[in-house]
Amino acid sequence: MSIDRRDFMKISAFSALALSFNQQRELPQSITQLKTMTDKAKPITREEYLQRQEKARLYMRETGIDAVFLTGGSSLYYFTQTNWGISERLFGMVFPSKGEPAYVTPAFEKGRALEQIKYGKDVRTWEEDESPYALVASILKDQGIASGTLGIEETVDFRFANGVAKAAPALKLVSADPVIARCRRLKSAREIELMRLANQLTLKAYEAALATLREGMTHVELGANISAAHQKLGSSGGALVLFGEWSASPHGTVVPQKLREGDIVLIDGGCSVEGYKSDITRTTVFGKPSERQLKLWDIEHRAQKAALKAARPGATCEDVDAAARKVIVDAGFGPDYKYFTHRVGHGIGLDGHEWTYLVRGNKTKLEPGMTFSNEPGIYIPGEFGVRLEDIMAITENGAELFTGQAASLTQPCVSV
Question: pLDDT digit string (tens) for 351-365?
Fold first, then answer.
């Protein structure tokens, strides 16, 4: 499950910068009066983790995969609650279609590993001068699949997969997407509730931060206020901030920005609640909006609504993108990708961006439990851009926006 675009890692880095900035100043009242919202979060239960593992075993058997191999990252966490980063030292898990998970860890990290491992008791260690790949091969041999089919989770580094392939040359290595992506793309009721809370929290943070807009404010200051608001609400979060003509650059700019009367203000970011991500974009204006700003915002609003209407079980991913794109092109902002320069949405869950994507050519059919961003955009270089983004869940009868559509250009955090 890959994270791209502005990346939540970038937001995390900005949040750290914002925290330092906020420690040196007095926060505005609209932020200091906020109360935590994360005390409402209900974590994923052990029973649900076990259900995920059993579903993965079923998919392995259906696809002829004998085991999957995972290293640190969100997929490892999804199945086992093990929260481990990636370095040059291999920490990995072999997850067989029959039996319990087994782990390989650096010997000096064994204590930390045992603190986190909650599923499976086979933990094998390697010293600095030993090969971790030989241990992976030994696990597979002991499980009777030394010459079987091993699915590789998509974020596993090539160096690790290649090391396993060399240590167990009789193995057939394949993509684990038919197992892992298939599990992760359908969210449970508990996952959806956590995502709903995360998105509601972010919208509340935006509301508090946008109340601090003032002439001459820098984009860094507004970003710091957004991060501070998230922190007061109980989560680490932040946002990309763009003013005026720079709002026409969907993923931002390194150019310093100061707010002026009449500027478009675009903020795009999110937070994490129990690991589950939010992702919201709001576009507003500082001062009185122009007719052109109002016109483009209205077109954008209708495009987002069209995507929401098209998102229902049985429809394809590309149908949703086409519905939004048609509104924008029919309004004169075409052809094709000229002003609406990106796909309409991405999957979201434990990662800010994950399978599958609402984009032309993706004929994957929507199913209840899938979650996506719904974020058409119109970007006029040298002038301004407008993007509205909310997260939606596919339901039995259509789709639900967790935070509702923005009411207007001047009331971006009020939902309709």
Answer: 999 999 999 999 999
